[in-house]
Amino acid sequence: MKTFAAVDIGSYELSMKIFEFSGKNKMREIDHIRHRIDLGTETYFTGKLSYEKADELYRVLREFAKIMETYKVDAYQAYGTSAVREMENSGIVLDRITQRTGIRADVLSNSEQRFLDYKSIASKGEEFDRLLEKGTVILDIGGGSIQISQFDKGSLTTTQNLHLGALWVRERLGRINAKPSQLEELLGEMSDAQLSMLKKFYFKDKEIKHVILVDDYLSGLLNTKNEHTDRIGYATAEQYQKLMEFMRKSSTGEIAVKLGISEENASLLFIAAVLLNRVMVMTGAELVWAPGVTLCDGIAYEYAQKQNLLVGGHDFEKDIVDSAMSISKRFMGSRKRAETLENLTMVLFDGTKKLHGLGKREQLLLRIAAILHDCGKYISMASLGECSYQIIMATEIIGLSHVEREIIANVVKFNHEEFINYEELSNSSLDMQAYLTMAKLTAILRLANGLDRSHKQKFKNIKVQLRENELILTVDTREDITLEKGLFTNRAQFFEEVFNVRPVIRQKKSL
């Protein structure tokens, strides 16, 4: 049995859940502690945290640390989300948290945060996979932004982030002294243009049956018994419209009294309700499901996966790959060529493990780089490397950190351009270790690219053997590979520079 604590330093509240794991696939929440603190309003608009708010933050986290001691937790994980990301001095604040509370916290990038929210839904089991089999949108409403991810036949096809978070919207509308009666109309004006563009460019004619809601505002209402729905956590489109009518006719104070929440929470709940309504109308969804999970559930689920406390379940790596394939398709990438490079890079990666010493996560990064290797040609054939880099850095791939995305972008870029020294990387967040990973993956991708220089997929099978200072690549083909052999040297030189091993092609002609 293991006990684990998940801590969320959120935009609107501090939250900690204590979980117990007993046996395979048994994850049980045993406590949930919440403290209301509005970090987002300050950091979104000033970039800083006031002394009073910082002092309150440290005090509550010290209390969380004492609660962990009481439960004798075996491990914990604490994350800051968008409010911490927006702080100009986030590094200093995180260091103070460690010094004053004993809790070490990390900052999640937006894509990492949304991926954990996504895992929190998966912690609910079979219902998640069942809904994804039909057209489904996950609407993740945060304090600073919302994330909309679309699934088709179980595969993630697109994910987009829109600057329409509940706290952000309330602050913006508060600045123009909007009346409560104007709120829905003004929010519609803020959101509809972005949602219509989203539908036009990404959803097109895809049929969407379900919306899965993740938020800290409206989910609580949908997960309590009320006269507007007949199944806890679910609402049909018709039932949801009745719920909207109730909220439209009620003041924020009346909503607060009826639901037993503060007026401040009621205002955020109404904003979330309007955003959900706009998404349901835009997609034509027939059903909304609010599983009632939080980021803490996703943090615990990921911990359990890494510790092999949960077996099986949803294939999240496939979702990352599906997302990359969708991006490649959007920028007119060649699927056949991408599959060829992907296969070649995986064979080379597996055959050179003794040289590179990288793991499964780096293998995934290489796989995605192979899929996106030519996305920049959509903009310019002459500046393929730089354009590919810009596309990847500007396109969110849910489940990858900012550093991981930057590694992929550079691997793709330097597959086409001259590799540079670490000191020459400008405006980069990569440390030396990440730079070395980037160099190794670039060397492998360049080698794979050299093996298919004609883009004609000539090699049926490749056998990789490491012999002293040579990497023997035995290719199985009866086709003419004069071009591949002739141009291979340039591609192989960088591999030799990185690994001090010379790649050599040998042809085996099958009957």
Structural topology:
Blueprint: E1 2-9, E2 13-21, E3 27-36, H1 40-46, H2 51-71, E4 75-80, H3 82-85, H4 90-101, E5 105-107, H5 110-122, H6 126-132, E6 136-141, E7 146-152, E8 155-162, H7 166-175, H8 183-203, E9 210-214, H9 219-222, E10 234-236, H10 237-249, H11 252-259, H12 263-283, E11 287-289, H13 295-306, H14 316-330, H15 335-351, H16 353-356, H17 360-371, H18 384-394, H19 402-416, H20 432-451, E12 461-467, E13 470-476, H21 482-499, E14 502-508
Parallel strand pairs: 1-4, 4-5, 6-9, 9-11, 13-14
Antiparallel strand pairs: 1-2, 2-3, 6-7, 7-8, 10-11, 12-13
Helix pairs in contact: 2-4, 5-13, 7-12, 8-12, 10-12, 11-12, 14-17, 15-17, 15-20, 17-19, 17-20, 18-19, 19-20, 20-21
Architecture overview:
It is built from 21 helices and 14 strands. The protein has 511 residues and is of the alpha/beta class. Helix 5 (110-122) crosses helix 13 (295-306), helix 15 (335-351) packs antiparallel against helix 17 (360-371) and helix 18 packs antiparallel against helix 19 (402-416). The protein is globular.
Put simply, the count of helices is 21
Largest sheet: 6 strands, mixed
Q: Give the strand line-up of the largest sheet.
A: 8-7-6-9-11-10
Helix content: 40-55%
Query: Would you count the extended β strands for me?
Result: 14
The coarse silhouette is globular
Uncertain regions spanning at least 5 consecutive residues: none
Straight-line distance between termini: 58 Å
Structure classification: alpha/beta
Return the average pLDDT rounded to an integer. Answer: 89
Radius of gyration, CA atoms, in whole angstroms = 25 Å
Report strand %: 15-25%
